[in-house]
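User: Sequence in, structure out. Go.
Assistant: Echoing your sequence, followed by the structure tokens.
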Amino acid sequence: MCQQIEREYVVINLSREAEIATRVRIAGTSEVRRKGLLGANGLAMDSGLWIAPCEAIHTFGMKMPIDAIFLDEHFCVTKIAQVLRPWRLAVCMRAASVLELEMGTIARTQTAVGDRLVFRAEAAIRERETVADKVL
């Protein structure tokens, strides 16, 4: 049986040249998507959960409010939900995925509908930084 390697991503808002989060995990399996952030006491600063595919989320049973960014298949923001409190729903039928983030991230980064995001594998970024440090 193959074990799935958990990869983290850095998410950057290209439109605003802002770093949204540096430790984003992907919820790529049905089991992980169903669990999402349920049971979590909070999100660490600069972390998040990318749920794909996804066009609707709920915060039933969650212990904290979150921010959510809905993305189309080109990673353009189609909807934002700021300070989504527990026991709420958020839906965007045009979305291909949803990025769940620490409350306040959308306001801090000024992310808006129409912005374009990019996801970069964190390991690749760390590897380039390590190589650059060795060269210097």
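User: And one key feature?
Assistant: The chain has one domain: 8-135.
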